[in-house]
Amino acid sequence: MIPYGRQSIDEDDIRAVCEALRSDWLTTGPRVEQFERAVAEFCGTAFGVAVASGTAALHCAMHALGIGPGDEVIVPTMTFAATANCVRYAGATPVFADVDPDTLLLPAAEVGRLATPRTRAVIAVDYAGQPCDYDSLRKICAAHNLVLVADACHALGAATGQGAVGSLADLTVFSFHPVKHITTGEGGMVMGHDKALEAKLRRFRNHGIDTEFRQRQEQGTWRYDMVELGMNYRITDIQCALGISQLTKLPGFLARRNEIAARYDQAFAGTSVRPLVAMPGALHAYHLYVVRVTRRDAIFTALRAAGIGVNVHYSPVHLHPYYRQSLGTGPGLCPVAEATSETILSLPLHPGMSDADVETVVRETLRFMGK
Questions:
Q1: For this structure, is 249 an active site residue?
Q2: Which domains does the chain have, with CATH numbers?
Q3: Structure pTM?
């Protein structure tokens, strides 16, 4: 089976993890800070706060922004459930937005349509690795006094003319799950520029405690205060050692992802396989290569039987039973996403794919589609 996504681990990565295992620090140690600095430097941000997962990073962002009961947060429905779930973790209400039919990104016009006096923030999702139109989103958010959060879990390494993803919103969230651009096994990070938000993020990931163990050891004290109710969202030095090593390979990973995407684009041009539109002037990170096809479920089954590990990203979040039952959402709320979700298919795309793998995916996809 050619998987739709997969980690790329080499001997340098394994060596880095082994060195961490032999060190004095397995968690809350120097490699966490080193990884945070490296990602922040890559993105051009003042800080990065590393946590246990991309979902934890989203929750931390909501907490740091003071999102709570009575608040609304606009989220696109074409995303993984965690984008909306983090709003619920904070006690607030996600308001589901429809998406652009060509890119499946959140249009600024949807924010303007859905904003109410209770709206506090917008979470824009860089679907499949393509950056949103942050210039337009920032303008509409400023007009409605909203905070802009980027769910860039698909988009580490992507960029626009305004800068690297990570630096384009008030807060940006990354994921380091194995199918993402770099991996720490599980892990995530929140990027930003506001040092007051950074302090809130660091407290919340560590039970709401005002200092971390290494700080207290360096100060020669055992005393600490829990100043708010937080979570244990810490990430380990073992994971961050892997992340540091992986980050050095990111430019090569991105280049290979774009090369595979270009091969797909060329192969499917003029056929019944319709890729999503890539906007000019932006560097696409290509976490996913999503196409629209007819008879999607039949094509999915046939390709899986042929050893092609296609997947579907995603069913609209507002159609999941939890949100239907808790918020009363249902069909008709986001018609573009609902219609498109019945046609989309994610083809395999990851740096470990060989040219022969790519040719196999193309050949089998076109064969079952009848070109």
A1: no
A2: 2-247 (3.40.640.10), 250-369 (3.90.1150.10)
A3: 0.96
